[in-house]
# Entry
Amino acid sequence: MRKIDIGKLAPANHRVLRDMNEVMVLNVIREKQPISRIEIAELTGLEGSTISKIVARQVSDSLILEEGVGEASPKGGRKKRYLHINPRKACAIGVDLRPSGYAVALSDFTGKILHAAELVSRSDPRDAVAEIALSIRELHRAYCSESIEGIGVSLVGLVDPEEGRILVGEGLGWGEDVPVGSMLSAALDMDLPIYYENGAWLGALAEIWFGKHERPARNLVFLDVEEGIGAGIIIQGQLYHGAFHGAGEFGHISLHPEGPLCSCGVRGCLEAYAADPATVRFYEELRRLKKAPSEPDQAGATIADVVDRALANEPEAVEAIRNTAAYLGRGLIPIIYSVNPELIVLGGPITRVWDLIYPVMMRELSQRTPRFYLDHLSVARTTLEARPSLVGAIALVLARAFAVPTAISSEDFA
# Structure
């Protein structure tokens, strides 16, 4: 599924169907709204008459709305009328499965989350799917009077996106080869398209569709730092899956062959040094070393506790966060060398202390990476308010309405 780069637009040539221009205009409106017809013409190079016909069809189909009036051109003429995506065109539902719990959210057609529900995690996937299906039906019945465009589901581990099957699970405790897709379809019994993807990959999709970064990027890596470390890769505006849906497992790159044991069974993985449990363990070790004999143990901290204490300048929490940041910086090096992205985005609770982790990561990169790579790279935290994987599950649905038709060659957008 390709996202149009509105910075590299050209009018359709004689080989391209009318649909290409339709989708081009729709994407410009989505990314630049509110926007006038004149501004669309400047961005796309399309004739004004062509744009007027496309806009008329899209207004008739309730895809866009014409609202608001701007100033007239200095040269005279009619005042500008501004175009927006119609948020009430349809709803979308996103589902995010995490070891720590599940989220189900309902959004409008622009991707704005309107209502969400949090569910506790379940050891039996059938129990989990039954509760998720119930939550979907309740959100639909209570809050969406429009049609539902579809359901996007974020899964953990190695995922078959065609069937919604977890091939190799990590953290959910469900084992391997779990047919989440067939179970959810049966539990819902609703005639709706359902799309599945790995959660870190959906975080990358969310950043490319909804992220607000200083430098828009077509080549991006999203690093999800939570219970584990996953990554999603965007190349030329498209999710990169790899040959067998296994790309992006940078969390399992070994930094030291004799390091701590990782959940994958290998020693010294980035995840074993820099995922949330590793940060918490290091923090608790520091606390034990400092603790006076009369003090009670302070075990049982969470990553939220460590982050909160770092924000309050507790020395042990600050040191634990900086330790993790140093390993993250080293972990970015193989990403930079192998993918050469324009933008690396980090998500997860640790990004709340961005002012602490960013300088440490960049120091590691500056000491270990040629200047050439760093001059063309931005490293940023997520700009999304909700969990990126949940936002990405919604984007997985909505992107179908804004995607380039598969019959059109990508060369037509060069």
Remarks:
- The chain has three domains: 18-86, 91-204+390-401, 215-382.
- Confidence is low (pLDDT under 50) at residues 12-17, 406-414.
